[in-house]
Write a structure and sequence with these properties.
158 residues, Growth Hormone, Chain: A, globular
C-alpha cells in the first residue's frame, strides 16, 4: 500500500481510537452533577466507574478470541458499533445508580474491541520498520482523547 494511503488510514483509525476514548471519560466529568441528580455517595459513584472498567477488562480478554475467530477487521468494526450504541444507551437511559451501574458496565463490556483489534490491524498494515511508530500514534490518540474529553466535558456540563 502506498505511504500516502497508509498515513490517511492511520489518521482515520487514530481518530476512531480517540472517539472510543472520549466515550469512556465523560462520566468522570459529569460525576459532580450525577452524584447530586442520582443521590449517590462517592462509593456508589466509584462503583459505576468500576463496572465500566470490569466490563472493559472482560472485553479485552474476549476480543482476542473474537479476532481469532472472525478477524481483526470484523471484530473492530462490530465492537465499534456495539461500543457506540451501548454508550448512547447509557447517555440516554441511565437515570439512577442501578441503571447507571448496569448500562456503564455494558458500555465497558462493548468497548474492548477497539483496542487490541486496532493494534492488530496496525500490525497487519505497517511494515516492521514503521509499525512501532504507527502503534505509538494509535495509543497517543487515545491518551489525548482522554484529556480532551475531561476538558471539553468539564466546560460543557455546567
Amino acid at each position: 500500500m502506498p505511504i500516502r494511503s497508509n498515513i490517511r488510514w492511520l489518521a482515520l483509525i487514530c481518530s476512531a481510537r480517540g472517539a472510543f476514548s472520549f466515550i469512556s471519560v465523560s462520566y468522570a466529568a459529569a460525576l459532580p452533577f450525577l452524584q447530586i441528580d442520582w443521590a449517590m455517595s462517592a462509593a456508589r459513584a466509584g462503583m459505576i466507574q468500576s463496572a465500566r472498567h470490569i466490563g472493559y477488562l472482560f472485553s479485552l480478554f474476549f476480543a482476542g478470541f473474537l479476532v481469532d475467530r472472525f478477524g481483526a477487521k470484523r471484530t473492530y468494526l462490530w465492537s465499534g458499533v456495539a461500543a457506540s450504541m451501548s454508550s448512547l444507551v447509557f447517555a440516554v437511559f441511565a437515570s439512577s445508580f442501578t441503571s447507571g451501574l448496569f448500562l456503564y458496565g455494558l458500555a465497558g463490556l462493548c468497548s474492548g474491541g477497539s483496542y487490541t483489534p486496532g493494534l492488530t490491524l496496525i500490525s497487519e498494515q505497517f511494515p516492521p520498520a514503521t509499525r512501532g511508530r504507527a502503534m505509538g500514534y494509535y495509543l497517543a490518540a487515545g491518551s489525548l482523547a482522554y484529556a480532551m474529553s475531561i476538558i471539553i466535558s468539564g466546560l460543557l456540563f455546567p
